[in-house]
Design brief:
Length: 382
Amino acid sequence: MKSRMPKAKSKFLQGRRIDPAPITPDITLANLVDESFLAYNAARLREACHLFTKKMLEPEVTVGLSLTGALTPAGLGISALIPLIKAGFVDWIISTGANLYHDTHFGIGLAMHQGNAQISDIVLRAAEVVRIYDIFFDYSVLLDTDAFFRRIIAAPEFQKTMSTAEFHYLCGRYVHAREQKLGLKDKSLLAVAYEYAVPIYTSSPGDSSIGMNVAAKALQGNKLAFDPSLDVNETASIVLAAKRNTVQGKTHGKKKQSGRSAVFILGGGSPKNFLLQTEPQIQEVLGIDERGHDYFLQVTDARPDTGGLSGATPGEAVSWGKVDPDRLPDAVVCYLDSTVALPIMTAYALARHEPRAPKRLYDRRAEFMDLLLSEYKKSKRR
């Protein structure tokens, strides 16, 4: 009888064999991710950790972060976002105004509490307790935060039209000063972003309690106004500078590497689009030669088949010019709650990657705008 020739191993069976070691009491979180997150959304979270840590945090990459969902009320500004900024892992941010408003509570010494989501909201309203799912806080927290913003935006430096990045930088300076007066440290994302010159933009500045208080002061003659065109062009200039490697600058005798742009999207919504539209602004509108963001990482619980932007895939983003098609393999979508994924990704990155020098992009906005203007002047779209 003829012996059968050994069957060639299928190309589809080249992946790592699933045979994990048992979890032990002393396993680190980073090792748990690497060794036990082997399939389904756990595997996508592992892939997200690897993409972020092994590629997005290389020196030539500029990382933009978008924030949606009530992350700062849950303390994730303190526990995760601030450590990422201090490690140099986040270079610029687009956030909902609500996240920045609730972040300010912590910086000015106001309290948020864990609560029971099953308690009647009618009972809570009578007790003047406000609820964000299972986060409770006294109604006075809103009033005191409103008063804080109305007081600072009456200052002379606010009496002009500005980008939301400049507005948040100025607010961060005041929150930072309040933290110091109260003996607090690293409680506010706004304050730490001010300290590390991380620009923060809001795609819809009127859609939050901060914007509502700005509107109220306008009725009293306050001159503060936001210019969305400044935001659109400044964010596009940051991405263009990242791709042209103007952000990185000289490499001290070594061969200069090409720059890259990474997007880290928590949730979706308007901040996601504002982060991604930087590339269509550069290519489609301004007519500047570019191909799209290099790295795409999103944590979302939204489905793509409803047609909403929050669930739109990186493949769909390629069709808009938002993501470089040649870089599409460097894209991960993790279908998970951000409040679960963000702390794990933060701990993993801090354990697996050394800190990066802060890029301090806020201080270089004029330089980046000069670059954008110089390339736009060469465009046929003018």
